[in-house]
Specification:
alpha+beta, single chain
Length: about 350
């Protein structure tokens, strides 16, 4: 039984890792265009340009990796006295797993995973519902973020969500998206997935549910969740995110990953304007030895995390500009008549230095 539950936990974490979000904050619908004649590449921007004489500055923030005590977790999820606790789990053997008749909760530094005993019923949602804007199967914009499902109101679900975050000790401000996933639309999106990639139909059927996705915000700017740094050097890191699924049977899933509690606002740093950031991204992309047209679909100002110590206990948050870029090209090596291709990707730079922030 323990092995089955551990396998379920692993499946959930893998599915969530494959759905990392790269949502961007859009602003005014003003279009501007510029061409890089020297590189032969064309750059198109669909966002407004700030004047270069505007001085921008943003604070740096310091945080510490969240630690979740057993007493807090027991109280927050109202675990029964018949619970079974397994200690020294995880890569550093610092975590623990608590199981009772209604759920399994896995806890480690910066991480909490709550899975109800019926979580198998909602796992297919993590495959069908796509909230990553650069995912070719992105479909979150086809679900409502207002209105109520039959079993509970939108506002009640949000209030319950905030209460559970407070109960486990999370004190940050969060940007929360709450999607109404109705069973009919889920079935439609499942058919699209099967037609494109194959696979089997969810024979258990679909349930109406709320899907909540949250990331921290610092001074109203979101913390980006893009993975960056080096695994070999021990600097690989990503921003905190929270995913939750609620059905008529209550909370089915809650996963908090890479959680950091903000403890201090540090000095302010002067940063690039939007126009300067676009020009820097354009310059860097222009150095790539490829024949593609790049379109900057959107650009957003936010924060990226970086470890402040080798023990990975403290984290600093620096300002960053992040663009969603559309790449279009022509692959003459293809055997088909249609040689055109396109894809989207995220490109992030430090808002002060202009250095690219990416995986190494």
């Amino acid at each position: 039984m323990k092995q089955i539950k551990l396998l379920l936990i692993l499946c959930v974490l893998i599915l969530l890792a494959s759905c990392r979000t790269t949502e961007s904050t859009n602003s005014l619908n003003i279009t501007s265009e510029s061409k890089d004649i020297s590189s032969g590449k064309e750059f198109v921007s669909s966002q407004p340009i700030l004047k270069d004489n505007v001085n921008l500055s943003m604070s740096v923030f310091k945080g510490v990796t969240s630690i979740f005590s057993e007493d807090v977790i027991n109280s927050a999820f109202k675990l029964s006295e018949n619970k079974i606790t397994q200690y020294e789990v995880g890569p550093k053997e610092t975590g623990y797993i608590v199981t009772d008749e209604k759920c399994t909760v896995t806890v480690d530094e910066g991480m909490v995973s709550y899975l109800s005993s019926d979580v198998q019923e909602v796992l297919p949602i993590l495959q069908v519902f796509r909230y990553n804007e650069t995912d070719q199967m992105y479909n979150a914009n086809q679900f409502e973020k207002d209105g109520d499902l039959n079993f509970k109101s939108h506002n009640e679900v949000l209030q319950d969500f905030y209460k559970i975050l407070q109960a486990i000790g999370l004190k940050n401000n969060y940007l929360v998206n709450c999607y109404n996933l109705d069973s009919e639309t889920l079935k439609e999106k499942e058919k699209v997935m099967i037609d494109k990639f194959g696979g089997n139909e969810n024979l258990d059927g679909w349930k109406d549910c709320y899907f909540l996705y949250a990331v921290p915000k610092l001074n109203d700017k979101k913390v980006f969740t893009d993975v960056h740094g080096s695994s070999e050097k021990g600097t690989m890191i990503t921003g905190e995110e929270i995913v939750s699924i609620v059905t008529e049977d209550g909370l089915q899933l809650l996963v908090v990953s890479n959680s950091v509690n903000i403890v201090e606002e540090l000095e302010k740093k002067e940063i690039m304007t939007e126009n300067q950031a676009k020009e820097e991204i354009k310059r860097q992309l222009g150095q790539l030895i490829v024949s593609e047209q790049y379109t900057i679909k959107s650009i957003a100002l936010g924060y990226y995390p970086q470890f402040a110590d080798t023990a990975h206990k403290e984290v600093l948050f620096y300002p960053a500009w992040k663009a969603v870029v559309l790449a279009e090209g022509d692959d003459t090596m293809r055997s088909s008549n249609d040689t055109a291709y396109s894809y989207e990707f995220s490109y992030m730079i430090d808002a002060q230095t202009g250095l690219e922030i990416s995986e190494e």
